[in-house]
From TrEMBL:
UniProt KW Signal keyword: no
A GO term from the CC aspect: cytoplasm
Family the UniProt entry places it in: Belongs to the ATP phosphoribosyltransferase family. Long subfamily.
Designated name of the protein: ATP phosphoribosyltransferase
Gene Ontology BP, a term: L-histidine biosynthetic process
Organism from which the protein derives: Pengzhenrongella frigida
Subcellular location: Cytoplasm
Lineage, highest ranks first: Bacteria, Bacillati, Actinomycetota, Actinomycetes, Micrococcales
Length: 281
């Protein structure tokens, strides 16, 4: 059985489980369940702490896992990113009280609090900077107020927590993170991993694309399909009225309205948009 590690708690857990369900896998009903078998799909799920997932995958005891890119890099484990999953997006940033520290070079010799010491130390080293890293489990933003650090490096999503602690980000983002599917560095891509990846990709495509149908005068078909080129190529079918054709193409969800405006301008009518429930590219 193909073994997959899934986050059991935190920001990654619920969206990961939802995505796996949409990909057709069984998921646990009781949050205390640690292992779940899905014999129909020949897979076994292990619900583990998000921070530990890269360690298990890197050791090869599980075949794949879902974790954050930031957690993967901080783990130093022998695991690699296989597919970005488009949820739990965040940036990882330096922050300090306003006007106190303005650049990465100014961190030299300061006390820096973080839950991601490897990620931060590697980044500082790449810039020739060393700091006194204070490793904390969470609520890192309070470290400056409480006097154990001069700067922090932490996950920023909306920025609300930082602002509440009277801190401001400075310098470029250390990392742009999101949930990722990971696999052991050493292993070859097996058919189990390939199936999992295709299923997750299918969920991503169904989330990110819609199906667009419209009618267009035959002499405008070329202009219309330049607007909606589809993935491979759009379907163009004749209509009973020979002067018109029907076109069907997948288009990115976030461009739907602009494309409908452009299609209308070239003469397309009866433009319909429908969601994609599932998809295999
Ligand atoms: N607002 C957020 N807060 C924390 N982590 C976030 C947020 N948005 C996305 N993430 C991502 O979630 C992962 C951290 O998950 P983890 O479960 O370790 O922490 P958490 O969601 O803060 O939960 P906990 O309550 O255990 O601290 C990282 O990959 C991080 O980038
Ligand atoms: O930019 P924001 O939207 O405010 O989110 C980012 C904050 O959320 C997380 O903290 P969490 O609530 O998980 O507490 P923790 O620090 O104890 O993990 C993270 O560590 C940041 O502190
Ligand atoms: Mg947290």
């Amino acid at each position: 059985m193909f073994r997959i590690a899934v986050p059991n708690k935190g920001s990654l857990s619920e969206p990961a489980v939802t995505m796996l369900k949409e990909a057709g896998y069984r998921q646990r009903r009781d949050p205390r369940e640690l292992v779940l078998q899905d014999p129909d799909n020949d897979v076994e799920f292990f619900f583990l702490r998000p921070r530990d997932i890269a360690v298990y995958v890197g050791s090869g005891t599980v075949d794949a896992g879902i974790t954050g890119r930031d957690l993967l890099l901080d783990s130093g484990a022998d695991a690699v990113e296989h597919l970005p999953l488009g949820f739990a997006g965040s940036t990882f940033r330096f922050a300090a009280p306003p006007a106190r520290v303005g650049s990465i070079e100014q961190i030299q010799g300061l006390r820096l609090a973080t839950s991601y010491p490897v990620l931060v130390t590697d980044h500082l080293a790449a810039h020739g900077v060393t700091a006194k890293v204070v490793r904390l489990d969470g609520a890192v933003e309070s470290a400056v107020q409480l006097g154990i650090a001069d700067v922090v490096a932490d996950v920023v999503s909306t920025g609300t927590t930082l602002r509440g602690a009277g801190l401001e980000v400075f310098g470029d983002p250390i990392l742009v993170s999101e949930a990722v599917l990971i696999r052991p560095r050493a292993s070859e891509v097996t058919s189990g991993l390939d199936t999992l990846m295709r299923r997750l990709q299918g969920v991503l495509v169904a989330q990110q694309y819609v199906l667009m149908d419209y009618d267009v005068p035959v002499d405008q078909v070329d202009r219309a399909i330049a607007i909606t080129p589809g993935l491979e190529s759009p379907t163009v079918s004749p209509l009973h009225n020979r002067d018109w054709a029907a076109v069907r193409a997948m288009v990115p969800r976030d461009q739907t309205n602009r494309m409908m405006d452009d299609l209308y301008d070239v003469g397309a009518r009866a433009i319909l948009v429908t969601s994609i429930h599932a998809c295999r590219l």
